[in-house]
Specification:
five-stranded antiparallel beta sheet, single chain, alpha+beta, four-stranded antiparallel beta sheet
Amino acid sequence: MEDVREVSAELHRLAESEPLDPFDTTQVLRRGQRGRRRRKLIGVGGTVVGVAAIAVAASLLPNLNSADSTPGVAEHKPQNPQFDPVPGVPSGEAGADQRITKEEATRRCALRNPDEKRPLQGSGPGIRSGHLMLYDIKTGEKFAQCIVPGGDRPKPAVVAAAAKDPLPASTADKLRNCSVLAWIDVTDWQVVALDQSKAYQEADLVAISPSGHKVVECELSEKEGLPGQLAANTTFATLTNLTGSDPVLDPSDKSVRADMYAAGGGGGGCTNGICTTYGMSGWGRVKSTAAVTVRLRIGSGPVYQVPVGQGGWFAFTWTTKAKYKIHDQPKVAAYDKNGKVVKVFES
């Protein structure tokens, strides 16, 4: 975390000493996964207009009561007619978060991006389906990414529907778009946390697989990404096999409800050490069964609050125009019904 803070502080210092003209925040660099916590810089030296956030109450999420903390057994089901099978890859939940070789990831990404001939970065046992990988690039080359496909290739009509409505209103359509991103059919997964911000132009969704063994975090965005960069992303984890490469805060905690947390954010509009905009999105799980809300704040700005749903899951998409000191860090914590802190995630 210290390396991220050092980079963040340096970027703020540069923004303060060499302020930039405001620019369109839709051209923000999308975040990628960085261990347990992720950050992204938004509008350094710039301005965010019309900042607001919308929290989706837990009572509006479907079938929350069935999100049992004890995983069940995955059931075989027929191929969803909206998708075609990917050769050599199991469909649905079985094809999610598979540990695969780089050669297999290369094969799958070639199916997805047939015109991309550069090798993928990374190696070793950490390559998994449904996760973002980068292509090797040389100076001056176009940036490119690939979400390693699972076993469900979306048909052209489904891809077109997702492209036409990148940040849909309905939960069902959100799950459709997440399936298109990952080539993993999550249309029948149970949504356990969801938050969406009109100003941030983003939604963050957490869903559990039918067996309860796997979880997906899916961020959807209607922002226009930079060339070669995806404007949305997915992250999968196997709840019965959490490791240090997952956003679990204590990898040694083998309980069925270990604390999990991943987030990305950043700020800008800095002058003389005082900044005026901040934005952040993320997700996680609270181990404590007493937690009812997760609250976020930076500096002396207003508190943003989201509910903790069944199973301890939460998600947030947060923006603020409150002033804060350039070295301030966001505070993220879970609270019980009496307003007592039960878990600090970031400060």
